[in-house]
Amino acid sequence: MCGIAGFVDRAEPDAAAQLRRMLGLIVHRGPDGEGSHIESALGVAMGMRRLSIIDIEGGTQPIWNEDANVGVVFNGEIYNYVELRHELEGKGHTFRTHSDTEVLVHLYEELGAKMTERLRGMFAFCIFDRANRSLLLARDHFGQKPLYFTEDGGRFAFASELKCLLTLPWVRRDLREDAFLTFAAWLSLPDGGTHFTAIKKVQPGQVLRVPLDERGGATQVVEWSYDLSVEPDLTKLDDATEALDNALRESVRVHLRADVPVGVLLSSGLDSRTVAAYAQELQSGTMQTFTVGFGAEDSEQSGAAETAREIGSTHHTLELTARDFSESIARIAWHLDEPIGDPACFAVMRVCEMARGHVKVLLSGEGSDELFGG
User: Annotated catalytic residue: which of 2, 126, 345, 352?
Assistant: First the structure.
């Protein structure tokens, strides 16, 4: 999963200690290692906790470009990194690792903030541009990866989890009076805010540019988009069906790029069953699938087990009880940071904990309801 955090504060007396406090709160996101960079002259501190998936030995962050003027901390995966790497090498860029992270610094050198338009993946990252004295923060198209930020009087901070920002003594803790009613109506806060007045979210498909010169300056917001147009010749059902099949197969193929075992969260729904079937077809060896249920007659377990038998996966099932739920409430609230209108978060957390003993990466059908109308 990974997690990133950092701040800009020229007056911070012990930046390294403060950064360690922030990163210490997200060890669960990245149990495999920690990396950091302090640039005292500019007041910059940034770091990350790593879950190693690609280039396990060489992907330690921050990762820098050839002359160490551009560095990045990154949470996520860039699925088209192989294709982007070949393109960038053709333009003369030199790579020191085999990680997807390194693509970001070289793509930034080529395109600046427009780099996000070329990325296919889920991501939240911060790029430190030493030469131009700026930070660039970006979040993926649909906001799959979280990224919070706060700023006050020339100071700026960011993190994958809100709780990291609350370790900073200058961040105000006052609550938004309107946030609860907004959450009650929408089960989320769609305006990019949080329940804290001073803390905001980088919106999906948004880039922040943070100046680092001594005069400071306002953080700039850059919106970006991507092409969602439909091929004009896909007017016949057979053609559309073939195009969808090709798109799903290709999507699962690039999602399987990893140097560690990959499994699938399998429910009885069409979405995850489809992902599991493509994954089993594309991956060498037997796919491992994981299901959680509550022992009811209409539980996901029976349908998932049937799919596992059909595709030939090695299947694992976890059955939960009401006691399991009640005993997990405090831990769930700690990890969520803010209220969330999805009661499935408990079951997902527990099934992921079970799966961690077998695989390191999980695919799921999350998002398919939005794409296919439920």
Answer: 2
